[in-house]
Sequence to fold (298 residues):
Amino acid sequence: MDAEEDPIDLSSEAADLVVQGDNADVLPLLPDGAFQLIYIDPPFNTGGRRDRRTLRTTRDPDGDRTGFGGARYASVETARRSYPDSIADYAGFLGPRLEQARRLLTRSGTLYVHLDWREAHYCKVLLDEVFGRDCFLNEVIWAYDFGGRARDRWPAKHDTILVYVRERGAHLFDQDRIARVPYLAPGLVGPEKAARGKLPTDVWWHTIVPTTGREKTGYPTQKPEGVLRRVLEPSSRPGDRVLDFFAGSGTTGAVAAAMGRRYVLVDENPQAIEVMRTRLGDRPRFLEVRGAALVEPG
Ligand SMILES: C[S@@+](CC[C@H](N)C(=O)[O-])C[C@H]1O[C@@H](n2cnc3c(N)ncnc32)[C@H](O)[C@@H]1O
Fold:
């Protein structure tokens, strides 16, 4: 059965989804403004070659694709090429996906892009182009302290999370929902304040995923649930829909479910889908992209 016969209705209550496929194929099938929050953690410098397809999609009742709610879209492939995974081509890979991310956000929505120190600056330039500099909210530094230490430079122990809003001023940022952290010097602020803790800043100290324990899935690039909780706390509310289109082990889905949000997760890697099946259980519906439609696997 394809999506034309069985349209995926994103407004339905039971609409947690995990989709296997290239996000370049999946994102055009999702409706405008469907997500309050998008978090992505794209891969970088895998050392291999990538295929890049650039598609332009427009609403068209006679189109070749069926999106959510049964809407029809026509897609035209404007370019296809294979390229080495370098900085210049990384921008070419990510740019069209960031444009889709912007389209998919609600007016009050926020995009969090998780990067490492090697590519953060190139992506900042790209995001400024797609969202506009006014919509740049924060550069969050996630600092950790684990693993080997370089001897010939400062050991690199942080990731960068760039935060952009769809519309500055209209964006949701609910400070009251953020879990407070202990003061570094509680003796300086008095017992009442010390007991309450302080709001975290844009520098987040948080351990990496512990090598043993409930959270560990074995997926190589898995991010800690605590970092995702902090992303979701101010920028989404219970019932809101969250998207992660480089989902990996499904950390965003696990945290979204625990916090009462709904989610759509996309990954092209079958191993990621297997990990998510185990981690997320029966709650989401699993689909894959076949041809130009989202279908049940099999
Ligand atoms: C860095 S990992 C994400 C890890 C994730 N944040 C977690 O906590 O597990 C990046 C993921 O993007 C996926 N990916 C890469 N290119 C993709 C594409 N074009 N479409 C969909 N998924 C893609 C990879 O398979 C990989 O699982």
The two ends are 11 Å apart (CA to CA). The CA atoms of residues 36 and 56 lie 24 Å apart. The longest strand covers residues 72-84. The chain has two domains: 10-43+87-173+200-295, 55-86.
